[in-house]
Amino acid sequence: MAYELNDVSVSYEGRTVLDQVSCIIPTGKWISIIGPTGAGKSTFVKVLKGLIPDIQGEYRINQHPCPRDARQQIKVVPDIGYVFQHPEHQIFETSVFKELAFGPKMQGFSTQQVEEAIELVLPKVGLTKDILPSVPFHLSGGEKRRIAIASVLITNPKVLILDEPTVGLDPVTRAALLTQLKDWQQQDQRTILFVSHQMEEVAEYSDEIMLFQEGRLLAHLDAVSLFIDNSILVERTGLNLPESIQLLKLVEELSKERIEVSSCKEQEIIAKILPIWQARGASYGE
């Protein structure tokens, strides 16, 4: 399933918030959407979901124009799941079971199919069946977040939009949640669009990154190409590079060596720079 924008613009009250954006969203990738506040990130993903019915330009799905209603406004795209910035605010049912069952029931699932779908989705967000009778509003923030995400995943979307999904979570909970989502994305060959200001998370999980500024798409590159080969482009937008990339560049500068990496994952970068740093320290000790 390919989603393609050609010269898409969006304006509110005479102000352009998305400016002639053209891109293709590939299948089976974790694509992070970054940029300073007001860059157009949330508007971009809302366009893809079909939440902004009036756009200029062309939106195509599988090489066909995005479906429109009788007034020629773009319809909501059902194959794309959307998890908002505070997804726990999407919860409305009186038990976790009812919350998770709502989407499948709306799709016409039988009682048995609903139960099977719930059983399959719970491990994907790190939950067990013990939580099903619980009242969602009495759970912790992290548990609410997982339930809200599970309620979207259970509808089996081809694309999952995550708009700042880790805001307000502690580091351990953030890492566990993102790791489980990465497993889902890779195992099911799904696409994740991850809107975030957390550059360390972007570096750790991204296959590709889209960089926005003032409504324009400045770059759509893999993580290494953007953060390492085109880091100056990121810094010009006012964003900080991930700390691991900053450390990599510092060691390169001090050692006068070019350090080749195949990803921006923190563990790989540390493994690459540690021997060089240790050798540099040993030379000072001689």
TrEMBL record:
GO molecular function, one term: hydrolase activity
Location (main, coarse): membrane
Recorded topology in the membrane: Peripheral membrane protein
Keyword Nucleotide-binding: yes
Record localization: Cell membrane
Pfam family, one: ABC_tran
SMART domains: AAA
Entry keyword set: ATP-binding, Cell membrane, Hydrolase, Membrane, Nucleotide-binding, Translocase, Transport
Segments forming domain ABC transporter: 3-239
Keyword Membrane among UniProt keywords: yes
E.C. no: 3.6.3.-
Annotated family: Belongs to the ABC transporter superfamily.
PANTHER family according to UniProt: ENERGY-COUPLING FACTOR TRANSPORTER ATP-BINDING PROTEIN ECFA2, HEAVY METAL TRANSPORTER
Protein name: Energy-coupling factor transport system ATP-binding protein
